[in-house]
Amino acid sequence: MKHELRIMNKLEIRNWKLKIFLVVLFSLILNLKSPTVANAQSVDLGIYPPVIQIQATTPSNVSAPFYIQNFSDSSVDLSISLTPFTAAPAENGTVSFLDNLNSFPDPSLLQKIQVEDDNNPIQTITLAPKQKRNLNLIVQIPQNQTKGDYYISLIFTSGGQTSVKTNSSQALAGIVSNILLSIGPLGETKGYIADFSAPAFVAKGPLPFTVRVENTSDHYITPKGDIVITNMFGQNVGKINLLRVNILSNTTRRIPDSVQSGGPDSKDYQTIKAIVDNNQYPVAVWPEKLLVGPYTATLTIALSDSGPLFKKSIIFFAFPTEYLIAILATICMIIFIIFRVRQKISQ
User: Fold this and answer.
1) Please, which residues have CB within 8 angstroms of residue 154's CB and are 6 or more apart in sequence?
2) CATH 2.60.40.10: which residues of the chain?
3) Which residue has the higher pLDDT, 290 or 209?
4) Is the peptide bond before 89 cis (omega within 30 degrees of 0)?
5) pLDDT in the model for residue 326
6) Each residue of 153-209: pLDDT tens digit?
7) Rounded to an integer, what distance in angstroms lies between the CA atom of residue 146 and that of residue 56?
8) Which pLDDT value is given to residue 51?
9) Which fold has domain 191-324?
10) Mean pLDDT across the chain, nearest whole number?
């Protein structure tokens, strides 16, 4: 009897331990799944231009005007910082901040860049509700400054932060304007079309084109180009204007069409947006929906206003699926009729 009681006590102890463990585990799971509530002040900022392009020679003292605006209904205190960046691997125009300045051409250049408000250098700024403030970016370039490209993000952050851990143009608590600084004289503009392709066969449009351009220059470039589509008779039936984008030195970038940057009021915007959303990378879209027969698409692109100019053509074939089914059904019907007629004749 005593032995049975001891067994029951041990079982009860184990059951209690198990219950306590389950309660603690359940509480931890609830805490992990429960959303964390953070009381943060909403920040709605704008900056223009979003990209500051500067081409200079040594020595020089460059001033680039820009403005920052507070769209919110409350004032905001902002800290100003500079962080070098490089192109992200995605080839879509996003950037990656450099954690290690060893890969930056000259870290001392950051000390020669400052923001001025009414000719007064500032490191912080307070914007009243709906206030727009005109500022100047000052870059002091000494005689012995190393020639080349310097890519730097000008970052405005709130909440006492001095940097942001994001690669987007607008952070949660701040905003960024990217500086493309070329100290020349600039070298020769060089590069090539790394890829120009489209599906070889489509049943219908819209049709996406992949355009990748590689910049092998020692400075950034802003190519200009278009895609012209001709039908089997050599007639021009479509044209896609490519968006002018900045391609950093020794990097590759995918170039979309210019309609995508025009917003919802642009012609064919919704059609193009639908097909762009289904692609992992930026594409240039021909919005034509009814396509029949072979087509030739010719890409023409100039790496700069003075060249060099490149051209590349590809061929694709389009035929509506419903037409193909109808033709195959007709062929099958004709074959069946011929077979039956020959059977009757042979009888």
Assistant:
1) 52, 80, 82, 115, 137, 176, 177, 178, 179
2) 45-184, 191-324
3) 209
4) no
5) 65
6) 999 998 755 444 443 344 446 899 999 999 989 899 999 999 999 999 998 889 999
7) 12
8) 96
9) Immunoglobulin-like (2.60.40)
10) 83
Paired with 210 in beta bridges are 197
Residue given tokens 């193909």 in the structure block: 324
State the fold for domain 45-184. Immunoglobulin-like (2.60.40)
CA distance 159 to 157: 7
Token duo for residue 245 = 């984008």
Query: Does residue 140 register a pLDDT over 80?
Result: yes
Q: Could you tell me the strand order of the sheet in which 309-318 lies?
A: 201-202, 309-318, 293-302, 224-230, 236-241
Identify which of 195, 166, 106, 174 has the alpha carbon closest to the alpha carbon of residue 142. 106
Q: What's the CA gap between 87 and 96, in Å, rounded? A: 6
CA Rg, the chain, in Å? 31
The reported pTM is 0.77
Q: Which amino acid is at 287?
A: P
* Amino acid identity at 251: T
Separation CA 78–CA 154 (nearest Å): 12
Least confident of 231-240, 284-293, 307-316: 284-293
Q: Cα torsion for 257, 204, 228, 266, to the nearest 10°? A: -40
DSSP 113-150: EEEEETTEEESEEEE-TT-EEEEEEEEEE-TTPPPEEE
